[in-house]
From TrEMBL:
Residues 1-13 have a biased composition (Basic and acidic residues). This is TetR family transcriptional regulator. Keywords: DNA-binding, Transcription, Transcription regulation. Residues 18-78 form the HTH tetR-type domain.
Amino acid sequence: MLQRVEPRRDNTGNRRGRRSREEILEVASRLMAERGYAATTLSELSRESGLPKSAVYHHFRSKGGLLSAVMEHGAYAFFQHMARAQQHPPREGSARERLGWYLRRTGEVFLANPDFLRLHLILVMNAEAAEAAEVERIIERVRRDGRAHMNHMIADSFAEYGPEIAQTVADRLDYFAIAGFDGAFVAWQADPSRSMAEAMDLLTDAVAALGESMAAGLRP
């Protein structure tokens, strides 16, 4: 899983330096999510944050370094939020009911972190950040960690079928479920009036139906 990256220490170690770093990250995340990495200039970032361009170079060394920090920071916050939202999964109920509990809460986490997810999908779909090799590694880790998280949710939801069958179902369906999440988020971005909760219920129905069919076929 992604680990939190501590900011580069200011020589003065003062709080103002730490605040300026957080302010730059917050503004950069919003601008890059709205306009893309290539279209976000350091001049624009300086104007929006009220901080000089020299502050960006001081904290992040380059625009590519800033993007790496934005993605690392966003990914850490996203998965921490996910872990908190799913701390106490239900132990009772059908596979569909348990999976629905997981996916509803995951949808809520998506809605709470739109800038990070929007930027993540922008970077996945084009090569505009190719100059920052570290960003590609972060994207790969986010996709890998996200799929592992989905795998766990599905396997836990189908636990009533036994660990071997539950894991087989999860291994077959985790990528499909991730694709469903990506599609639901893009649809919500295109039309915010659409209900993410309803999309999660439909995704739950699809994954549960496929999983139950697979599980039935795997039983001796």
